[in-house]
Specification:
single chain, 198 residues, alpha+beta, four-stranded mixed sheet, 8 strands, 31% helix
């Protein structure tokens, strides 16, 4: 009779502890990157960390239009499940959906929402040297201008100067000789008049 009561008490104790033990056997998600409802600007992979090593992970990354952005199959880093992404995620809302098999053999599923925001990296500012170079206009090739040419003056005939004779030298000599003869003749005539008057 005593042994029967002890057996009943043991069965009752095991029944009371069994739900707690079964609940603790299920593996749970400890953390994620990105975290739930996080806002990120740069993301190349999704990391899910569980309290125990899980098996057969399946991870998808979906945008609001349910387009998938995961690349290849998920892998492991210890107790972490790592899922690479197919490229840079455009800004918008995303959801990580996962399914794993816990160490007790039960499947575990879940979803993690996050948002990708535009990158806030400032545009590079030009250095002072480059700014001066950009502000200074580049020298344009100079076209050699025509040198000033002094106007050539055309000599004009002086109206006050006597005309230059274009005759031959012989004609000039004859005119001079004729003038000498006329002058001598006048002297002779003047001498005769003086003598006759005396």
């Amino acid at each position: 009779m005593f042994l029967r009561r002890v057996a009943i008490l043991l069965i009752a104790a095991v029944a009371a502890v069994w739900p707690m033990t079964a609940a603790q056997a299920h593996d749970i998600l400890k953390s994620s990157n990105p975290a739930k409802d996080a806002k990120v600007s740069d993301l190349s992979e999704v990391v899910l960390e569980f309290n125990n090593a899980v098996k057969f992970p399946k991870v998808v990354v979906l945008n609001a239009a349910e387009e998938q952005f995961q690349s290849g199959e998920a892998g492991f880093r210890g107790k972490k499940v790592v899922q690479r992404l197919s490229g840079t995620l455009p800004p918008g809302k995303y959801t990580i959906g996962y399914r794993v098999v816990s160490s007790d053999g039960h499947p575990r599923t879940g979803e993690i929402a996050f948002t990708v925001i535009p990158s806030s990296t400032p545009a590079p500012t030009p250095s002072p040297a480059s700014a001066e170079e950009s502000d200074t206009p580049a020298p344009s090739p100079q076209t050699p201008s025509a040198l000033p040419v002094a106007p050539t003056s055309t000599p004009q005939a002086n109206e006050d100067s006597p005309p230059v004779s274009g005759g031959s030298p012989l004609l000039t000599y004859l005119v001079i000789g004729l003038g000498v003869v006329i002058a001598g003749f006048g002297v002779v005539v003047a001498g005769r008049r003086r003598r006759s008057g005396g």
